């Protein structure tokens, strides 16, 4: 935390995992400071000794809050939910909470890690677009089907949940990798509804302190 | 659930994600039935129409319980924790819970997905051993460092938690891929302590209904 007691978010404007946490902070009206970690510049600032001491996984986001540092976006969001429960990002009903966590983990464990920067580097420039498209499409095929039984206005029912915080940044990644989203009408529809909400707008990659001028909204 | 009301676990003996859930079920003394899903045989039974209807992600584990089907191992474990809280797999203190979830997600999102069967197929036979070793080593380097500040007898303090349910199966994968575990003394030590517990033994890949005779303990 800063001397003023504000939490500090280590974030990169285009990181989908950072965006998830930014949405949670916005929804819960938690005032925070951003320290940008540029994943490209200087060979990747996440590899600096200073940052590695903070997060040995060399990934954003990391959140300094209440005297501790938490890494892994879902762990951060669950902590915020337990310590700042209003508005809730997990439903009261355990079965609905299970749906929220299932969708969140499907995206955070089943899609995003396979199309993140470090994996695409390994895959090589030639194959990386096809690789990312295949990964995202395969996950979205499953998600579109699951949403048929869980979704209302949003991923699970009519309240914004942690699952929605995962969905919107993943759809943005899908757009960057030119995935045909017309194949996923439910995902697209929910994404559109969520992007109309203020918390999803202020946290958007196009409006961060480290967003390059040419990408600013 | 079966007619007798028992939960049904769709599992593959060697799947590290299935093992996580088997440990949770054993620790919480939840009686269940196993339906094996062979990820290799018949081109992969997870691709059958029947199984896809159950889990569109075409992955094990899936758990039928209380009239619902839950996929994604961490979502299943969190549901079991909320509905069958004894013994607890998450500490009471929110900061310690954050550590448990951080380590669980580091493994479940940051290591395992990058060395699972479907990714290794994409990577190709020649490169897959090096790929898996690099992924696991990179994750274990981070984890070894994190454990310096969280571990007691187990990953977080002296009580078995969800983090431990993720650790042991991941170490087994590391052994299969011949990762040099002497580089990770804390991980190795905790793993050894956990493997001495009955819940980790009865759930072990060498003791499942679908374990091939030549691999049985």
UniProtKB/TrEMBL annotation, chains A, B:
Domain GST C-terminal: 93-213
Biological process annotations from GO: glutathione metabolic process; L-phenylalanine catabolic process; L-tyrosine catabolic process
Protein EC: 2.5.1.18, 5.2.1.2
Pathway: Amino-acid degradation; L-phenylalanine degradation; acetoacetate and fumarate from L-phenylalanine: step 5/6
Signal sequence segment: none
InterPro entries: Glutathione-S-Trfase_C-like (IPR010987), Glutathione-S-Trfase_C_sf (IPR036282), Glutathione_S-Trfase (IPR040079), Glutathione_S-Trfase_N (IPR004045), GST_C (IPR004046), GST_Zeta (IPR005955), GST_Zeta_C (IPR034330), GST_Zeta_N (IPR034333)
Superkingdom classification of source: Eukaryota
Reactions that this protein is recorded to catalyse: RX + glutathione = an S-substituted glutathione + a halide anion + H(+); 4-maleylacetoacetate = 4-fumarylacetoacetate
Keywords: Cytoplasm, Isomerase, Phenylalanine catabolism, Transferase, Tyrosine catabolism
GO MF annotation: an example: glutathione transferase activity
Domain named GST N-terminal: residues: 5-88
Location in the cell: Cytoplasm
Family assignment from sequence similarity: Belongs to the GST superfamily. Zeta family.
Name the record gives this protein: Maleylacetoacetate isomerase
Taxonomic lineage: Eukaryota, Metazoa, Chordata, Craniata, Vertebrata
Gene behind this protein: GSTZ1
């Amino acid at each position: 935390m800063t001397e003023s007691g504000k939490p500090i978010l280590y974030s990169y404007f285009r990181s989908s995992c950072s965006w998830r946490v930014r949405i949670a902070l916005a929804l819960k009206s938690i005032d925070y400071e951003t320290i940008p970690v540029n994943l490209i510049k200087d060979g990747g600032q996440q590899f600096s000794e200073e940052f590695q001491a903070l997060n040995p996984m060399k990934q954003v986001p990391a959140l300094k809050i209440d005297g501790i540092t938490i890494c892994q976006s879902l762990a951060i969001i669950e902590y915020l939910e337990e310590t700042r429960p209003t508005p809730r990002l997990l439903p009261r009903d355990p079965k609905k909470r299970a749906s929220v966590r299932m969708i969140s983990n499907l995206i955070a464990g089943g899609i995003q890690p396979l199309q993140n920067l470090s994996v695409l580097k390994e895959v090589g420039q030639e194959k990386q677009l096809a690789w990312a498209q295949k990964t995202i499409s395969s996950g979205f095929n499953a998600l579109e089907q699951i949403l048929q039984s869980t979704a209302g206005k949003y991923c699970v029912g009519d309240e914004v949940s942690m699952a929605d915080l995962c969905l919107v940044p993943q759809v943005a990644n899908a757009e960057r990798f030119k995935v045909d989203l017309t194949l996923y009408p439910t995902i697209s529809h929910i994404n559109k509804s969520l992007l109309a909400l203020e918390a999803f707008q202020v946290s958007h990659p196009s409006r961060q302190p480290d967003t390059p001028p040419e990408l600013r909204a």
